[in-house]
Design brief:
Radius of gyration: 20 Å
Largest sheet: 8 strands, parallel
Helix content: 25-40%
Number of strands: 10
Number of helices: 11
Length: about 400
């Protein structure tokens, strides 16, 4: 499908997001989103798109996926309040997912931005919507996991399903998108596709044989990869698989989780993608001209996360950025090169062409079993598209609907 060139892009940013702090020694640093924003400003990209401040996710938003008791816990938990060890274990609060000051406000902020972004796509006000603070794909219905507390991606997809018959989720974080896959494992209205490191690696899920169940069989696609994968090897599997996904599933909207821990040199990662190689995934999915939601995710070498998401905002806008970085508030992080691109390492690529061929053949066979895009009946139709509303302060008519076990919005 030909690329149509210019896109209407909206970008959600909460100015307070960079102030949240997981604690000393924790690899997840929301400050990276503030660094990205500053770099976008330096490159003049903020003037090329609508910049919107998100409305915090409401209790009703959060309860569309998460359990009452888990959300009540997140709302009340503070570091200076004694928390029972059994409760902490029950909700999987750990070193990765600590209780920190402002935790619930943080969850409302990043989740609200993803829900607002999905709503803008539903209303047809944007072709591409961006929330770099989102993409926290490990959170489960009743527990935190891997730096993720609330699964903003699931909430955004549920919002998109109010209007769109089929939603595609694509995950290029180095870690398997387990929370999102699990949420939609039983439905044919959402296809999940995850490209990830597999084998003795967090979270340990994402086997190539995990393909969904029941009505969702063949609608979960897992692409297990080994360490050291470079741009050429990555796109050797990414492009043909995604071409077949788009042909077989024919989604009405696409959610792309752009975790930057798959970049070369990530503090926690072991892939060897360049920023251009990573962004070519965005460029490729953009070319299909389907409403597109871009979200953040992992990424623990801060300067490279900011580089990546800034450059990918440029890709969304159809703007090629100069490699020489403009002066901005956090320029000191990017020395001595002061460039938008970083050179990948010479680490060994443990992904042989033979193993990639085997993976590709198996997954293309799985996708070929989808004769055609599923015929879908809505369990509900939105009672109001809110197309005459000026902003997101008005709650949608369906915001109090919860997700049934098969992943459908359900009253």
């Amino acid at each position: 499908m030909a690329d149509a060139g210019k896109r209407r892009v909206c970008y959600y940013y909460e100015p307070e997001i960079g102030n949240y702090y997981y604690g000393q020694g924790n690899a997840m640093k929301p400050h990276r989103v503030r660094m990205t924003h500053s770099l976008l400003e330096g490159y003049g990209l903020l003037h090329r798109m609508r910049v919107l401040r998100p409305i915090p996710a409401s209790n009703r938003d959060l309860l569309r996926f998460h359990s009452d008791d888990y959300i009540a816990f997140l709302r009340s938990a503070t570091p200076d309040r004694h928390l029972d060890a059994d409760i902490l274990r029950r909700f999987n609060m750990s070193d990765d997912c600590p209780v920190f000051y402002g935790l619930f406000d943080y969850c409302q902020s990043y989740a609200g931005a993803s829900v607002c972004a999905a709503r803008e796509l539903n209303r047809g006000r944007a072709d591409i919507a961006i929330n770099w603070s989102g993409g926290l794909h490990h959170a489960k219905r009743s527990e935190a996991s891997g730096f993720c507390y609330v699964n903003d991606i699931v909430l955004a997809i549920l919002k998109l399903l109010e209007v769109h018959k089929r939603v595609l989720y694509v995950d290029i974080d180095i870690h398997h998108g387990d929370g999102v896959e699990e949420a939609f494992y039983l439905t044919d209205r959402v296809m999940t596709v995850s490209f990830h490191k597999f084998g003795d690696y967090f979270p340990g899920t994402g086997h190539i044989g995990d393909i969904g169940y029941g009505k969702g069989q063949h609608y979960a696609i897992n692409v297990p990869l080994d360490e050291g994968i470079d741009d050429e090897s990555y796109h050797y599997v990414f492009k043909p698989i995604m071409e077949k996904v788009m042909e077989a599933f024919r989604p009405d909207a696409v959610v792309l989780q752009c975790g930057a821990d798959s970049l070369s040199g990530d503090r926690l990662g072991c892939f060897n993608l360049s920023i251009k190689g990573h962004s070519d995934c965005i460029r490729y999915m953009r070319s299909f001209n389907v409403p597109l939601l871009l979200l953040g995710g992992g990424g623990y070498t801060l300067r490279n996360v900011a580089r990546c998401w800034c450059y990918e905002t440029g890709v969304a806008l159809g703007v090629e950025l100069d490699d020489e970085m403009p002066d901005h508030e956090y320029i000191g992080y990017f020395g001595p090169e002061f460039t938008i691109h970083a050179v990948p390492s010479n680490m060994e690529n443990k992904n042989s062409r033979r193993s990639l061929d085997a993976t590709k053949v198996k997954l293309l066979e799985t996708l070929s079993s989808l004769q055609h895009a599923p015929s879908v009946q809505f369990h509900e139709q939105p009672t109001s598209m809110d197309t005459d509303q000026d902003d997101d302060y008005q709650e949608d008519a369906n915001d109090d609907h919860h997700m049934d076990r098969d992943g459908w919005p359900h009253s």
